[in-house]
Amino acid sequence: MNITIFNNLDALYKEAADTFVELSKKAIQKHDKFVVALSGGSSPKAIFSLLATPEYSDKIIWNKIHFFGVDERWVSLEDEKSNFKMTLEVLLNKVPVNKNQIFPMYKEGIEPENYAKAYEAQIRNVLGADGIFDFILLGMGDDGHTASLFPGEKILQEKEKWVDAYYLKPQAMFRITLTEPIINKAENILIVTFGKSKRNALNEVLNGVYNPELYPLQLIEKKAGVQIFTDKEAGI
Prior knowledge:
By secondary structure, the protein is α/β, with parallel strands linked by helices. It is built from 7 helices and 10 strands. The protein is globular.
Protein backbone atom coordinates (compact mmCIF):
# COMPACT_ATOMS: atom_id res chain seq x y z
CA MET A 1 0.00 0.00 0.00
CA ASN A 2 1.25 3.47 -0.86
CA ILE A 3 1.97 5.25 2.44
CA THR A 4 3.10 8.86 2.76
CA ILE A 5 4.27 10.14 6.15
CA PHE A 6 4.18 13.92 6.39
CA ASN A 7 6.32 16.13 8.63
CA ASN A 8 3.33 18.30 9.50
CA LEU A 9 -0.42 18.29 9.05
CA ASP A 10 -0.50 21.37 6.83
CA ALA A 11 1.56 19.49 4.25
CA LEU A 12 -0.77 16.49 4.55
CA TYR A 13 -3.89 18.62 4.05
CA LYS A 14 -2.37 20.33 1.03
CA GLU A 15 -1.36 17.07 -0.63
CA ALA A 16 -4.83 15.63 0.01
CA ALA A 17 -6.46 18.69 -1.56
CA ASP A 18 -4.07 18.51 -4.52
CA THR A 19 -4.96 14.84 -4.94
CA PHE A 20 -8.67 15.67 -5.05
CA VAL A 21 -8.07 18.33 -7.72
CA GLU A 22 -5.94 16.06 -9.91
CA LEU A 23 -8.27 13.09 -9.68
CA SER A 24 -11.25 15.30 -10.48
CA LYS A 25 -9.55 16.53 -13.65
CA LYS A 26 -8.68 12.99 -14.78
CA ALA A 27 -12.15 11.60 -14.11
CA ILE A 28 -13.96 14.49 -15.81
CA GLN A 29 -11.68 14.21 -18.82
CA LYS A 30 -12.31 10.45 -18.93
CA HIS A 31 -16.09 10.27 -18.45
CA ASP A 32 -17.36 13.82 -17.88
CA LYS A 33 -18.05 13.42 -14.16
CA PHE A 34 -16.30 12.83 -10.87
CA VAL A 35 -18.19 10.65 -8.39
CA VAL A 36 -16.90 10.75 -4.83
CA ALA A 37 -17.79 9.47 -1.37
CA LEU A 38 -16.53 11.54 1.54
CA SER A 39 -16.03 10.66 5.18
CA GLY A 40 -16.90 13.10 7.92
CA GLY A 41 -15.35 13.53 11.32
CA SER A 42 -12.39 15.68 12.29
CA SER A 43 -9.72 14.35 9.92
CA PRO A 44 -11.09 15.69 6.60
CA LYS A 45 -12.37 19.04 7.90
CA ALA A 46 -9.18 20.95 7.15
CA ILE A 47 -9.00 19.32 3.70
CA PHE A 48 -12.54 20.45 2.91
CA SER A 49 -11.70 23.95 4.13
CA LEU A 50 -8.77 24.10 1.73
CA LEU A 51 -10.89 22.91 -1.21
CA ALA A 52 -13.34 25.75 -0.54
CA THR A 53 -10.63 28.42 -0.86
CA PRO A 54 -10.23 30.18 -4.23
CA GLU A 55 -6.76 28.62 -4.66
CA TYR A 56 -8.42 25.21 -5.01
CA SER A 57 -12.03 25.95 -5.78
CA ASP A 58 -11.16 27.78 -8.99
CA LYS A 59 -9.38 24.65 -10.31
CA ILE A 60 -12.40 22.37 -9.86
CA ILE A 61 -15.40 21.92 -12.16
CA TRP A 62 -17.91 21.59 -9.34
CA ASN A 63 -21.00 21.01 -11.48
CA LYS A 64 -19.44 17.77 -12.76
CA ILE A 65 -19.04 16.28 -9.27
CA HIS A 66 -21.49 13.96 -7.50
CA PHE A 67 -21.07 13.86 -3.73
CA PHE A 68 -22.04 10.86 -1.62
CA GLY A 69 -21.31 10.06 2.01
CA VAL A 70 -19.15 7.20 3.22
CA ASP A 71 -21.09 6.77 6.43
CA GLU A 72 -23.31 8.65 8.84
CA ARG A 73 -24.81 8.68 12.26
CA TRP A 74 -28.58 8.42 11.89
CA VAL A 75 -29.27 11.96 13.11
CA SER A 76 -30.75 15.06 11.53
CA LEU A 77 -28.51 17.08 9.21
CA GLU A 78 -28.89 19.92 11.73
CA ASP A 79 -27.47 17.77 14.54
CA GLU A 80 -23.89 18.50 15.56
CA LYS A 81 -23.18 14.75 15.40
CA SER A 82 -23.97 14.66 11.67
CA ASN A 83 -20.97 14.06 9.44
CA PHE A 84 -22.69 15.62 6.47
CA LYS A 85 -23.55 18.78 8.41
CA MET A 86 -19.83 19.51 8.64
CA THR A 87 -19.29 18.66 4.96
CA LEU A 88 -22.06 21.03 3.93
CA GLU A 89 -20.94 23.89 6.17
CA VAL A 90 -17.22 23.63 5.45
CA LEU A 91 -17.32 22.75 1.75
CA LEU A 92 -20.50 22.11 -0.21
CA ASN A 93 -22.38 25.27 0.78
CA LYS A 94 -19.36 27.36 -0.24
CA VAL A 95 -18.77 26.08 -3.77
CA PRO A 96 -20.99 25.99 -6.89
CA VAL A 97 -22.13 22.37 -6.69
CA ASN A 98 -25.40 21.31 -8.29
CA LYS A 99 -27.65 20.61 -5.31
CA ASN A 100 -29.22 17.62 -7.07
CA GLN A 101 -25.74 16.05 -7.19
CA ILE A 102 -25.40 16.05 -3.40
CA PHE A 103 -26.64 12.90 -1.65
CA PRO A 104 -26.79 13.14 2.16
CA MET A 105 -26.91 9.85 4.05
CA TYR A 106 -30.02 10.82 5.96
CA LYS A 107 -33.69 11.47 5.29
CA GLU A 108 -36.34 12.50 7.76
CA GLY A 109 -39.28 10.19 8.31
CA ILE A 110 -37.80 6.96 6.99
CA GLU A 111 -36.29 3.99 8.79
CA PRO A 112 -32.48 3.74 8.39
CA GLU A 113 -32.62 0.21 6.92
CA ASN A 114 -35.09 1.38 4.28
CA TYR A 115 -33.03 4.45 3.49
CA ALA A 116 -29.95 2.27 3.03
CA LYS A 117 -31.79 0.55 0.18
CA ALA A 118 -32.84 3.89 -1.30
CA TYR A 119 -29.29 5.22 -0.98
CA GLU A 120 -27.89 2.22 -2.81
CA ALA A 121 -30.41 2.86 -5.57
CA GLN A 122 -29.14 6.45 -5.83
CA ILE A 123 -25.58 5.18 -6.18
CA ARG A 124 -26.64 2.71 -8.88
CA ASN A 125 -28.47 5.49 -10.71
CA VAL A 126 -25.27 7.56 -10.89
CA LEU A 127 -22.66 4.80 -11.25
CA GLY A 128 -24.58 2.02 -12.95
CA ALA A 129 -24.26 -1.68 -12.21
CA ASP A 130 -20.46 -1.55 -11.83
CA GLY A 131 -20.62 0.84 -8.88
CA ILE A 132 -17.10 2.16 -9.26
CA PHE A 133 -16.50 5.42 -7.40
CA ASP A 134 -13.77 7.62 -8.82
CA PHE A 135 -12.63 8.57 -5.34
CA ILE A 136 -13.41 7.60 -1.75
CA LEU A 137 -11.98 9.47 1.23
CA LEU A 138 -11.68 7.35 4.37
CA GLY A 139 -10.46 7.89 7.90
CA MET A 140 -9.51 5.46 10.64
CA GLY A 141 -10.55 5.48 14.28
CA ASP A 142 -8.32 4.69 17.24
CA ASP A 143 -9.82 1.18 17.21
CA GLY A 144 -8.98 0.57 13.54
CA HIS A 145 -12.51 1.09 12.22
CA THR A 146 -13.21 2.85 8.94
CA ALA A 147 -16.52 4.15 7.63
CA SER A 148 -19.06 2.62 10.07
CA LEU A 149 -17.33 -0.73 9.88
CA PHE A 150 -16.66 -1.25 13.57
CA PRO A 151 -14.76 -4.13 15.21
CA GLY A 152 -16.82 -7.23 15.86
CA GLU A 153 -19.95 -6.05 14.04
CA LYS A 154 -21.91 -8.28 11.65
CA ILE A 155 -21.62 -5.69 8.88
CA LEU A 156 -17.97 -6.68 8.42
CA GLN A 157 -19.18 -9.85 6.70
CA GLU A 158 -21.51 -8.08 4.25
CA LYS A 159 -20.63 -9.06 0.67
CA GLU A 160 -23.77 -8.21 -1.34
CA LYS A 161 -25.23 -4.88 -0.23
CA TRP A 162 -23.40 -1.68 -1.15
CA VAL A 163 -25.06 0.28 1.65
CA ASP A 164 -26.38 -0.96 4.96
CA ALA A 165 -27.72 0.39 8.24
CA TYR A 166 -27.55 -1.19 11.67
CA TYR A 167 -27.85 -0.38 15.36
CA LEU A 168 -24.46 0.10 16.99
CA LYS A 169 -25.02 -0.81 20.63
CA PRO A 170 -21.86 0.78 22.10
CA GLN A 171 -22.98 4.14 20.68
CA ALA A 172 -26.71 3.55 21.25
CA MET A 173 -27.54 4.76 17.76
CA PHE A 174 -28.12 3.64 14.19
CA ARG A 175 -25.34 4.04 11.62
CA ILE A 176 -25.60 3.94 7.83
CA THR A 177 -22.53 3.11 5.79
CA LEU A 178 -20.96 2.03 2.55
CA THR A 179 -19.84 -1.59 2.84
CA GLU A 180 -16.58 -3.32 2.02
CA PRO A 181 -17.65 -4.53 -1.47
CA ILE A 182 -18.50 -1.06 -2.81
CA ILE A 183 -15.53 0.61 -1.12
CA ASN A 184 -13.05 -1.84 -2.63
CA LYS A 185 -14.48 -1.28 -6.11
CA ALA A 186 -13.32 2.36 -6.06
CA GLU A 187 -10.77 3.56 -8.58
CA ASN A 188 -8.97 5.62 -5.93
CA ILE A 189 -9.09 5.50 -2.13
CA LEU A 190 -7.34 7.94 0.18
CA ILE A 191 -7.09 7.02 3.86
CA VAL A 192 -6.24 9.97 6.10
CA THR A 193 -5.29 9.21 9.70
CA PHE A 194 -2.89 10.94 12.03
CA GLY A 195 -1.92 11.52 15.65
CA LYS A 196 -0.45 9.40 18.45
CA SER A 197 -3.80 7.82 19.25
CA LYS A 198 -3.84 6.14 15.82
CA ARG A 199 -0.34 4.69 15.96
CA ASN A 200 -1.12 1.30 17.46
CA ALA A 201 -4.10 0.57 15.22
CA LEU A 202 -2.27 1.72 12.09
CA ASN A 203 0.68 -0.53 12.95
CA GLU A 204 -1.67 -3.49 13.38
CA VAL A 205 -3.49 -2.71 10.13
CA LEU A 206 -0.29 -2.53 8.14
CA ASN A 207 2.00 -5.00 9.89
CA GLY A 208 -0.12 -7.19 12.12
CA VAL A 209 -1.84 -10.51 11.50
CA TYR A 210 -4.81 -10.17 9.15
CA ASN A 211 -7.77 -9.84 11.51
CA PRO A 212 -10.37 -7.41 10.12
CA GLU A 213 -12.82 -8.44 12.84
CA LEU A 214 -10.51 -6.56 15.20
CA TYR A 215 -9.04 -3.99 12.78
CA PRO A 216 -11.65 -3.38 10.06
CA LEU A 217 -9.42 -1.10 7.99
CA GLN A 218 -7.65 -4.30 6.94
CA LEU A 219 -10.71 -5.00 4.76
CA ILE A 220 -9.49 -2.31 2.36
CA GLU A 221 -7.46 -4.04 -0.32
CA LYS A 222 -3.82 -3.13 -0.73
CA LYS A 223 -3.82 -2.29 -4.43
CA ALA A 224 -2.93 0.43 -6.90
CA GLY A 225 -5.00 3.53 -6.29
CA VAL A 226 -5.09 3.10 -2.51
CA GLN A 227 -3.05 5.59 -0.50
CA ILE A 228 -2.54 6.33 3.18
CA PHE A 229 -1.63 9.83 4.31
CA THR A 230 -0.38 10.00 7.89
CA ASP A 231 2.05 11.92 10.08
CA LYS A 232 5.14 11.06 12.12
CA GLU A 233 3.14 10.58 15.31
CA ALA A 234 0.97 7.85 13.76
CA GLY A 235 3.22 6.68 10.94
CA ILE A 236 5.06 3.41 11.09
